[in-house]
Design goal:
Blueprint (H helix, E strand, L loop, with lengths): L9 E7 L7 H12 L3 E7 L5 H10 L4 E4 L13 E2 L1 H6 L4 E4 L5 E4 L2 H11 L8 E5 L3 H12 L4 E6 L2 H14 L4 E6 L2 H8 L4 E4 L25 E4 L8 H8 L4 E2 L2 H16 L5 H9 L2
Parallel strand pairs: 1-2, 1-3, 4-6, 7-8, 7-10, 8-9, 10-11, 11-12
Antiparallel strand pairs: 3-5, 5-6
Helix pairs in contact: 1-10, 4-5, 4-9
């Protein structure tokens, strides 16, 4: 990509700290190259207190926008000119677009990326009950987007009940077509709630490398065979939860396609073109 940068190349940037682990540069640069677009995507480590300067820098240098990662997904909002409806309710932004006149608009594509990955699997969730474990930033984005897009009921489980209550209250206040409630994280109650649910989503860190032998449920017998199980973790590729789902005969997915689709939605916002998702999935992730 570096050899193809010219005097007309425009750029997008990832703002956060740290950023060295991010897969966004390889995803977007592969897509730009595949479509013959004269753009480049770079990751910028932004030190504490320098976020406003970074946004001003993007504007001054003619950037089309970029992504925002931790710890700035909430802080970025004060430097925006506009914010999308779902990002406003979620209270965090992971994508910005900079117009030719310098107007900066914020979006949240995390939840949309998850919904798109569900739709790709032909999962019917509209009007249905969904159980979500976890109440962090990803959970909030996913829950609110699912509510926006027609989920009938969402039950949130979390070890810190107050965090789950906050998300549920947010949904009930802003998206009254969806009924939301919160429960303390407890396997017995979780199993009871998923009995009549269409989708179970793990948004906790349980199942990642430091807890690779753990899951939010313990037995395939606890899963209805017709429930769809999603785990937003993508490393490892198959968590303990997904192994249990497979044993139970449940359709399931990890978080890889959510990662790719949230990037694809941002790509569309900047370029008005569709990211070659199949190519990205195959060439970068080998799937």
């Amino acid at each position: 990509m570096v050899n193809k940068i010219s005097g007309t190349t425009t750029f997008m940037g990832l703002l956060g700290n740290p950023v060295d682990h991010s897969k966004s540069p390889i995803i977007h640069n592969t897509a730009f190259e595949a479509l013959g677009l004269d753009h480049v995507y770079m990751a910028f480590k932004v030190e504490d207190g320098k976020l406003n300067d970074a946004v001003k820098g993007l504007k001054a240098l003619g950037s089309k926008g970029g992504n925002i990662t931790m710890p700035y997904k909430t802080k970025i909002i004060e430097y925006l000119d506009e914010i999308s409806p779902e990002a406003k309710i979620i209270g965090s932004v992971n994508t910005i677009k900079i117009d030719e006149d310098g107007k900066v608009t914020g979006y949240n594509t995390d939840g949309k990326g998850f919904v798109k990955s569900l739709e790709e699997k032909d999962v019917e969730f509209k009007g249905k009950k969904i159980v979500i474990a976890g109440a962090g930033g990803a959970s909030k984005a996913i829950a609110i987007q699912l509510a926006f897009d027609g989920a009938g009921e969402i039950v949130l489980f979390n070890r810190t009940l107050e965090n789950a209550i906050s998300i549920a209250d947010n949904i009930n206040k802003n998206i009254p077509t969806c009924k939301a409630s919160a429960r303390i994280m407890n396997e017995e109650d979780l199993v009871e709630e998923i009995e009549d649910s269409a989708v179970l989503v793990n948004c906790t860190s349980i199942g990642m490398k430091e807890s690779i032998d753990q899951a939010i449920i313990s037995s395939p017998s606890q899963l209805p065979s017709d429930i769809f199980v999603a785990d937003i973790i993508y490393d490892p590729e198959q968590t303990k939860l997904l192994k249990i789902a497979q044993e139970a005969g449940c359709k399931h997915m990890n978080g890889l396609k959510m990662l790719i689709w949230q990037g694809a939605i941002a790509f569309k916002i900047w370029t008005d073109k569709d990211m070659p998702v199949d190519l990205i999935t195959r060439d970068i992730f080998g799937e």
